[in-house]
Design brief:
By secondary structure, the protein is of the alpha+beta class. The protein has a domain of 249 residues: DD-peptidase/beta-lactamase superfamily (Beta-lactamase), CATH 3.40.710.10. A 6-stranded mixed sheet has the order 3-2-1-6-12-13. A 5-stranded antiparallel sheet has the order 8-7-17-16-15, with helices on both faces.
Length: 493
């Protein structure tokens, strides 16, 4: 072979070698990344070839798939009562992916879960499409409907709100509502135009309908935080003395609390006088001056420690969706400490944390981890996994929980939560009205549990609405009727 031909042969060999290596690099080494790429439309087509499993509330499929006549999109995802259950189900969209249970249970729902391998192998052998397993939620349909309807009727077009209700004995989530909500059917539409137009409208809505406000938005808790401030005083005492619900907080001012090192003051709602400085009475009247004073007496270290024991400053629980962290500020001055003790300054919490706070009192001082999935089912409806309640925290002793329970019942019978009085079942509660920025109405809260003697539901309701009269923007008037509806849906009355 002469020299020129030899050079051409070597060059051609090098080209074939490069082509071989490149092909193997793409098909073997990078295969997974190309397969998972967002622009790989084959994934979308494949996803719609699967008879995706159901999301179930009680015995009702609130998310399910129906067969179509399309060769590419063989199954259409459908959501019954879509807006009501959107914070639970999320959506399954060809253009926008998945969210909430559709996302966190995707492997089970799309049939790729290894526990379904045998069943889907047999389905394939029979010429059937791949099928997914199903998810049975912990949601109480009556509670979810009551929360959704009550919140929707309470809010104006510029208002937002959320409800989280749990079983304090197990942590099972009974209701999870966020308003304004959205319709996942629009995002699951077979029409890309419908999906895109709806997604654009949602993104342009300043109230963020897709944001799950019960789990992923924090708000100032206002006077509901006095549950934790009370727990701190009852646990640690102050001034060398133990504190009980009947203790007289003699150093607290009844009208105005001057804050050390600051020109700011703390006053009671409407400038009212705190008629009694006894702890349980000040709690029932929600006296800011007394609780600001208590905060400074128990000290920042004890108050922060108690807040963190309840779950503040910690990664929020997974339900399985991730939840935002409720925050209690650190390195506080005395003035900031007093404001934090009444749930202001930079204290923020999710509605779920509010329900957990109430459940700690209801459950003798123990918080059970919230969870949304009761069971997982295979393609034939057989149970392949069931939830087991687990403890999240034990922030207070049973004796302190008992004292707080008496104080919270007194709020309903003799205090600020009159909307929960005489509703056919005994209730323990705490209201909250948290100040926001200039020109904004306060955030209205109600955290409660019932029945007071044998609790089966703990609920937190948050309402923020600038289109109501400021005189009506209180926890008792705005959030109370919603909490009432949820409680009655669960326990009757």
């Amino acid at each position: 072979m002469n020299r020129p031909i030899k050079k051409v042969a070597i060059f051609c060999f090098a080209l074939f070698a490069a082509l071989f290596l490149d092909g193997n690099w793409i098909q073997v080494v990078q295969a997974n990344s190309y397969s998972a790429h967002a622009d790989n439309y084959r994934n979308t087509i494949y996803a719609y070839q699967v008879d995706r499993g159901n999301i179930i509330v009680g015995s009702t499929n609130v998310a399910y798939s129906t067969a179509t006549k399309s060769s590419q999109m063989k199954y259409q995802r459908v959501y019954s009562n879509g807006e009501m259950y959107a914070p639970v189900t999320g959506y399954f969209s060809s253009n926008y992916g998945t969210a909430n249970l559709e996302q966190f249970e995707n492997t089970l729902l799309n049939g790729k879960d290894t526990r379904l391998a045998t069943q889907n192998f047999l389905r394939k052998a029979e010429g059937k499409d791949q099928a997914g397993g199903s998810v049975v939620t912990t949601i109480n349909a009556a509670a979810q409907e009551a929360a959704y309807n009550a919140l929707k009727s309470e809010l104006s077009s510029v208002g937002e709100g959320a409800v989280a209700a749990i079983n304090p004995k197990t942590g099972a989530i009974l209701a999870l509502v966020s308003s304004p909500s959205y319709d996942p059917n629009q995002l699951a539409s077979a029409s890309a135009t419908t999906q895109n137009n709806y997604a654009t409208a949602l993104n342009n809505n300043t109230l963020q309908p897709k944001l799950d406000k019960a789990l992923n938005q924090t708000y100032p808790p206002g006077s509901t935080f006095k549950i934790i401030t009370s727990a701190t005083a009852l646990t640690y005492g102050f001034g060398g003395q133990s504190i009980t619900p009947t203790s007289n907080i003699s150093g607290a001012p009844p009208v105005t609390l001057n804050l050390p090192g600051s020109t700011s003051t703390i006053s009671n709602s409407g400038g009212e006088t705190c008629n009694s400085l006894v702890l349980q009475d000040a709690f029932a009247q929600s006296c800011n001056t007394v609780y600001g004073y208590i905060g400074m007496q128990v000290g920042a270290q004890h108050l922060q420690s108690m807040a963190e024991a309840f779950g503040f400053n910690k990664t929020g629980p997974t339900v399985p969706m991730t939840t935002s962290t409720s925050m209690f500020p650190t390195n506080l001055s005395q003035a900031q400490l007093a404001q934090s003790a009444i749930g202001q300054y930079n204290v923020t919490m999710t509605p779920l944390e509010g329900a957990m706070m109430a459940s700690a009192v209801a459950n003798g001082g123990v918080i059970e981890s919230p969870y949304l999935i009761a069971k997982e089912l295979d393609t034939k409806g057989n149970v392949i996994a069931s939830a087991t309640p687990t403890q999240f925290a034990d922030p207070i002793s049973s004796s302190v929980a008992g004292e707080l329970a008496t104080m919270m019942q007194n709020v309903v019978t003799n205090g600020t939560a009159t909307s929960l009085n005489n509703i056919g079942v005994s209730v323990a509660a705490k209201t909250g009205t948290a100040e926001r920025g200039t020109g904004q109405n306060p955030v209205a809260w109600m955290v409660a549990y019932a029945p007071a003697t044998n609790p089966t539901v703990a609920v937190a309701v948050m309402v923020a609405d600038n289109d109501v009269q400021p005189s009506d923007a209180f926890g008792n008037s705005l959030a109370g009727p919603i909490a009432k509806a949820v409680i009655q849906a669960v326990v009757g009355g």
